[in-house]
């Protein structure tokens, strides 16, 4: 048995998993606040990464400036999407809303391909050094950055929902919109805010992945990986989303290790999370941390 | 208008859902400092009336006036900010949230700190603000005697306690007018007495005008300044408790006496 690959893959799984967790969190945020299953989550990563790439390759600005401008843009992007596309759909059947998000997904993928082409484009180099030593492993600094960014975002979410006025309003809205309104919470504003935060946070993940792998439409695949993560953790649990993301990331990489060592079937990385998804749906349909809907008849 | 106008007035309010007439041409006004009760049989339109006031329903005809100003088209959350708080007939607490968090949601419109200021927690005065709010919230908690359960998830409490937490949450809005939809439904005698005392105190000590729907006639007649009776969406009587009880149609509705035409 060859363990030389095991630990790098495990570490890789944790790093990628943390990013999945971040995207899954922003997916759950929208679902919790407005009960919309957002199939365009991956396109948030894509749009964010392309915007940042375009800023950095077009203007001579430092990375952090481009990153900040991207985040401002994505805030507006999220709000505009919510106001223009989703607000008119309030009160319509769930399937119509889901179809609208599927439509947005297709639209933005095509738009990005049309504007930036179909080939992966690398970010301009950000770090001077190529590799650093961590616990005896060679790690790219961008990976470390991505881990730090993910942890920072998770802490931010925790703080936001526990202590901030708007986080509390969002939790209240998720629970009962009518009651939240009667307590002075503006529900349309909460919806717009949840889309804005979700778009910004996803685009941060998009930029990080773009820096590592280059920017291409493959980024939107993260939006699909989110489904095993959130189903695993439970659709309406933020902590569940984080853990689900980590589990999916590790699972992918361990599946690759098992595959390369023993099975040699190929492509287990891509498929393993979806096997897990099917299993979880069979055994624990509300996920590990989701709320059970018990109906009394 | 200002101080002289009644705190709240309904002006020829009608509410229809398709062919169902929930309210027909109801007019009344609530004066500042009153405990105003709405009574009537089930399905009489009491909750519909309260929903028209809180903004959940919009009257088909007529208007709602807040201190002389027409608020018929004002959104629910804006009405809360104007000073109208409410509780619900069926408990509507945020079950997974702690009692304290439930009450803090009620302070939403009073917390001025925005997202950015909140992030600059230690610099922006958000902390100072929160401490001031927490003090007021603690006063409400003391008043309603729910100190012991303040950290407990609201969903785990007994029915009577949940009713109190809901009242606390509505009080946290610092409303000038508080709408109570059956505050004593499903309570035992002791709990009812407590609740009646709380309502009288929040009216007299906290200076909140109360508009209440209640079925317990004993309590209603005891603590109300004025009473309005609805039946099939129409107002059949309004006045002091004694006047209302003496009204022939009320006697027929509640005591089953024949009315001579």
UniProtKB/TrEMBL annotation, chain A:
Organismal lineage: Bacteria, Pseudomonadati, Pseudomonadota, Alphaproteobacteria, Acetobacterales
Domain of life of the native organism: Bacteria
One GO CC annotation: plasma membrane
Broad class of where this protein is predominantly found: membrane
Topology with respect to the bilayer: Multi-pass membrane protein
GO molecular function: transmembrane transporter activity
Membrane-spanning parts: 7-30, 36-56, 63-85, 97-120, 141-161, 192-215, 227-251, 271-289
Subcellular compartments: Cell membrane
Family: Belongs to the binding-protein-dependent transport system permease family. LivHM subfamily.
Keywords noted in UniProt: Amino-acid transport, Cell membrane, Membrane, Transmembrane, Transmembrane helix, Transport
UniProt-listed GO biological process terms: amino acid transport
Record-linked Pfam families: BPD_transp_2 (PF02653)
Keyword Transmembrane: yes
Name used for this protein in its record: Amino acid/amide ABC transporter membrane protein 1 (HAAT family)
Automatic annotation (TrEMBL), chain B:
Keyword Nucleotide-binding: yes
Organism domain of life: Bacteria
Keywords for this protein: ATP-binding, Nucleotide-binding, Transport
Pfam families found in the cross-reference section: ABC_tran, BCA_ABC_TP_C
Annotated ABC transporter domain residues: 8-257
Annotated Gene Ontology cellular component terms: plasma membrane
SUPFAM superfamilies: P-loop containing nucleoside triphosphate hydrolases (SSF52540)
UniProt GO molecular function: ATP binding; ATP hydrolysis activity
Family annotation (PANTHER family): ABC TRANSPORTER ATP-BINDING PROTEIN, CONSERVED COMPONENT OF ABC TRANSPORTER FOR NATURAL AMINO ACIDS-RELATED
Name listed for the protein in its UniProt record: Amino acid/amide ABC transporter ATP-binding protein 1 (HAAT family)
